[in-house]
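Quick one:
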Amino acid sequence: MAANPDEIVSQRPTLREKYDNYIGGEWVAPVDGGYFEDTSPIDGSVLAKIAQSNEKDVDLAVKAAWKAAESWNKSSATERSNVLLKIADRIEENLDMLAAIETWDNGKPIRESSLVDLPLAVDHFRYFGGVIRSESGESSDLDSTRVTMEVHEPLGVVGQIIPWNFPILMATWKLAPALAAGNCVVMKPAEQTPISIHALIEVIADLLPPGTVNIINGFGPEAGKPLARHPDIKKVAFTGETTTGRLIMQYASENLIPVTLELGGKSPNVFFDSVMAEDDAFLDKAIEGFVMFAVNQGEVCTCPSRALIQENIYDEFMERCLKRTEAIVMGDPLEMTTMMGAQASNDQYEKILNYMDVGKQEGAEVLTGAEKFDNPVHPNGYYIKPTIFKGNNKMRIFQEEIFGPVVSVTTFKDEAEALAIANDTLYGLGAGVWTRDIHQMQSMARGIEAGRIWCNCFHDYPAHASFGGYKKSGIGRETHKMMLNHYRHTKNIIVSYDKNKLGFF
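Output:
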């Protein structure tokens, strides 16, 4: 159940002065004693000091995880299911508090963290808590004397590296299936948004056997790298930018362990002329679908950051889309009326502003935005106005992931050209298709090279639908029950009932 908007209070949550690592069920100070400051993008203030870990801390966490694995790896599906369902209940009970911390740490509006992110996290824990109980074994007779069985076993201890755009939800995407499959976890949250995970752990710690989940804070080179290349880690799951994903894959290859990589995107959002055949609810939905680039301040791997609009409806359709975009309410992210919050960090803020300069220098036309937003409530925060450029697909703003509230718009003549433009990218994570023609919908959905195609919708993330990329957008899948096998070995057992030898020797 989602939070009651009337119960959300715009106030700073109570936080610890510092957050240590969480190892073996205890809060443990970093071995070398280092800490760094975590600041809120809402107002630039320091939220807390965070443990700055290195390979020594990673090693402690891995050892603690393997100690817990002695029992958790052998636990029953019923036991694991019950733990996950209790975690879901506990998150739901503390939803408003967790949402407020998520907003202060990340900058996203409270309406998204409380009405979307946290309810989705709850649902994902319940999904994997249920699906692990629904599995049945697979066996078959080879002949009258032999049987083959496919048996699933947990990998043991896995490493997970979480991005900063959806701190709790992306942690859930990885944590729920890993625990359901019987693994113990060493997790590194993003250094930009580490507090949300700790708040979650504080809420659910008593439900988990000590060492089942371990949290290591710190920066990529110091903590992420030793985690990915640790000889006792049996799999690495990473969500983040493509360049870092390459490094993670390289580190994991040293031990020949599997990786799951959910990487960057440059999602096309294609609008065919039939969307304007009638002035109705569907057209209104399609306009909202265009403006979905502003969800989570555009800090979404699947952000519909390329809008492809059929040329014969461009003027009329864009007139409506511009009005809808310029109606986006900015202000205090802790107010339920605020639609778009702060960019997650100063680094990201500066990166987005730089890309806006790039777009202007390339000759792209600024239709709206392309400048910072001076927030009267929080003047020291990192706010940028939702931005629409018009240009062509060869421009950098069309080809490179900006990860901000920026959409680059171009036109197309027909379905063939739309498909060519949609696929003219290094990425293949998500895409949107908007049409009243079911045949066109299916043709485009099958033709676009991406792992998730939204048809007449966008930004829908159900737990029981697989998510992942084509091309440079990643390897493997998140969500859906198929993800369990990303966290398990498959062992084949052949049993012979024949007492007689084969006769070779």
